[in-house]
UniProtKB/TrEMBL annotation:
Classification via CDD domains: APP_MetAP
Protein's UniProt name: Aminopeptidase P family protein
Domain of life, per lineage: Archaea
Domain Peptidase M24: 192-405
GO molecular function: aminopeptidase activity
Domain Creatinase N-terminal: 33-108
Residues forming coiled coils: none
Length: 424
């Protein structure tokens, strides 16, 4: 199957706002996401949804979620398209000024997360939950949906009981299905955000290539890369860099203070780097000097496994069919791990959806897909990743892609054919 070829001028443009070129249209980005969620809500028996999960809130409201302390921000979306958003005092005040597309912003009562956990008393926790539920019920009454079923995207028993105490009938399963279905296929602006974050990651890879040398520590080199990512406007919420024996198996502490030495392999994992909230997952391997034949062969195996999977991805294909492109138990080096089942080898070889979260639909994995397949749809975006040991070290490689009608488009463009060699 042929890979998707971008047309003339299609691809990453500048990161700044201009009036002379159509770039990411943030208003259209917000509106189309909200429309997708609303359309799917209206297909259900729900009268409204209470969204507590940060990515779901951002998808519907366009607000920059900080991760927060848990339920100090939450959003109500009604079947008529009305939005009520609750947030902390400072955030809510700021949002009222800076987010004119939202017309009803209220102060949140943090019923879940760090605040009730730190309170030290059950009575305090109950007060917070009941106050949060009371505010939601008041808004539901104001917008005429109090007598209809309320979808909730978290299954916290205390919250559901508190909402029930206010006379609200809740449904967790339907709300999660609505948001999953809305988010799994991306709009043109969402895809451009992912293409943009891939380009920013490539700036980070270039900084690693320029700054790497024997004697530098992993954390120093990673700091150089992170600085470059921030300089390009990214949010860096994860990622790491490892070297030498820390590259196989993956080091439990990720980046360490290990000193990089001649002959080391180095790989950088740019995961959870965000642009307008859209998250990357993008690996590349570097060699300190010319790689050995063993390292070249390991890299070739990892790259070929990756592209075998990519060639299987197309609309209508199912995840069980695609997963066959990933290594079997021998190719997974299961004997090294003393593993008997693919599910024991989480994250080694798989493809996972990308969007406002690092892991979204679909997931393609031998540990799950053969018995629980789903169908691939045009417009899905994902990261496909493989790895391979090379003696006492290892290589990793990963591509970010979007499913097109005539093949996957590879959003990542850092050279993949060979290990990137760093001259010493």
């Amino acid at each position: 199957m042929a890979f998707y070829e971008r047309s003339f001028m299609e691809g990453t443009r500048g990161t700044q706002a201009v009036d002379w070129e159509g770039r990411i249209d943030t208003r259209r980005l917000r509106e189309r996401r909200r429309e997708r969620a609303l359309e799917r809500l209206q297909e259900t028996e729900l009268g409204a949804m209470l969204l507590v999960s940060d990515p779901n809130i951002r998808y519907v409201t366009g607000l920059a979620m900080t991760g927060g302390s848990g339920a100090d921000h939450y959003t109500l979306l009604t079947e008529e398209g009305d939005i009520v958003h609750w947030d902390t005092a400072d955030h809510a005040s700021n949002q009222r000024f800076n987010c004119p597309w939202l017309h009803d912003i209220r102060y949140a009562c943090p019923g879940l997360g760090n605040v009730p956990r730190a309170s030290g008393r059950d009575s305090a926790r109950q007060f917070l939950l009941e106050t949060m539920a009371e505010g939601v019920a008041e808004a539901a009454t104001e917008y005429g949906v109090a007598d209809e079923k309320l979808g909730v995207d978290v299954g916290n028993r205390g919250l559901l009981e508190a909402l029930g105490g206010q006379g609200l009938e809740t449904d967790v399963e339907t709300a999660n299905a609505v948001m999953e279905d809305a988010r799994k296929v991306k709009t043109e602006d969402e895809i451009e955000c992912l293409r943009m974050v891939a380009a920013i990651c490539e700036a980070g890879f270039q900084r690693i290539k320029d700054a790497a040398k024997p004697g530098r520590r992993e954390n120093e080199l990673w700091g150089e890369a992170v600085r470059e990512l921030w300089r390009h406007g990214a949010f860096v919420g994860g990622g790491y860099l490892t070297s030498g024996p820390n590259t196989w198996p993956k080091h439990q502490a990720n980046t360490t203070d290990r000193t990089i030495r001649p002959g080391d392999l180095v790989y950088a994992d740019f995961y959870n780097v965000g642009y307008l909230g859209y998250r990357s997952c993008y690996y590349r391997t570097f060699s300190m000097g010319e790689p050995t034949q063993e390292q070249k062969e390991a890299y070739e195996a990892a790259r070929d496994n990756l592209y075998d999977v990519l060639e299987r991805i197309e609309p209508g294909a199912t995840t069980d069919e695609i997963a066959r492109g990933f290594p079997d138990m021998a190719g997974e080096h299961a004997d090294y791990y003393d593993a008997d089942e693919h599910w024991q080898l989480t994250t080694n070889h798989w493809a996972h959806g990308l969007g406002l979260q690092l892991y979204e639909v679909p997931l393609i994995w031998r540990g799950l897909s053969p018995d629980h397949p789903i169908e691939i749809e045009e417009g899905m975006t994902m990261a496909v990743e493989t790895q391979e040991p090379a003696g006492r070290q290892g290589v990793r490689v990963e591509e970010m892609v979007v499913v097109r009608e005539n093949g996957v488009e590879i959003l990542s463009q850092w050279p993949v054919e060979e290990i990137t060699v760093v001259d010493q």
